Fold this sequence. Notes:
It is a single chain. This protein has no helices and six strands. By secondary structure, it is mainly β.
Amino acid sequence: QDQLNLTGGGSFVKGAGKQWVFDFGGTGAPGWYQIVRWTGKTTFAASDFAATNLSAGLSGAFTLDEATSTLYLKVGR
């Protein structure tokens, strides 16, 4: 399971960039994926993330769960 795990006393804070884009290089499979977990608060919104270049016919949608400090990606057709 690949994911980014941010730990420590800080928060997951948005910088000056417009969007984090995850390029899947033509790969991917339907399902839910845990992308990032962090400690503290976040200033990000789900719309701050984009998935591109998934396998043919697939698309991705991000969800932020602030209760568990986790960013998920749902990949589907």
